[in-house]
């Protein structure tokens, strides 16, 4: 199911978070909706750029974090799944190593305007 089909999918231009709320070289999780029904996004940042992905690993469809709000990131801008260590690039969500190699996180388009990360328009 595409993120756009999720009942809580945010509309284009919806504010996701402030850029400053995301550590440079790190990420945060942002939820739309409540509890188990929420659409949970990982927002990653490098400098003035940000990317968002659905928080589901393509390996076993598990969240990439095993503890709330705790994600594993590397200095060279990769996000590591907490379960079996698949490594995903920040900028396109592609898995470059591990059991999900050559598969990608599901991208949610975002833009950064005036320090605010917003849902973009899918290309
Ligand atoms: S569930 Fe993410 S690598 Fe296995």
From TrEMBL:
| Keyword Iron belongs to the record | yes
> From which organism does this entry originate?
Steroidobacter agaridevorans
* Pfam families in the cross-refs: Rieske
| KW Metal-binding (keyword) present | yes
Gene Ontology MF annotations: 2 iron, 2 sulfur cluster binding; metal ion binding
Family annotation (InterPro entries): Rieske_2Fe-2S, Rieske_2Fe-2S_sf
**Keywords, A to Z?**
2Fe-2S, Iron, Iron-sulfur, Metal-binding
The segment(s) forming the Rieske domain are 14-119
Task: Quote the protein name from its UniProt record.
Answer: Rieske domain-containing protein
């Amino acid at each position: 199911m595409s993120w756009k089909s999720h009942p809580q999918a945010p509309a284009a231009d919806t504010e996701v978070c402030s850029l400053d709320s995301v550590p440079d070289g790190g990420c945060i999780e942002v939820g739309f909706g409540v509890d188990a029904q929420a659409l949970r996004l990982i927002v990653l940042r490098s400098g003035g750029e940000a990317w968002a992905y659905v928080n589901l690993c393509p390996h076993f469809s598990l969240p990439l974090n095993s503890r709330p709000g705790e994600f594993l990131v590397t200095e060279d801008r990769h996000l590591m799944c907490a379960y079996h260590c698949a490594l995903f690039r920040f900028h396109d969500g592609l898995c470059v190593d591990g059991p999900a190699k050559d598969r990608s996180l599901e991208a949610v388009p975002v833009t950064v305007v005036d320090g605010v990360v917003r849902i973009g328009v899918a290309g």
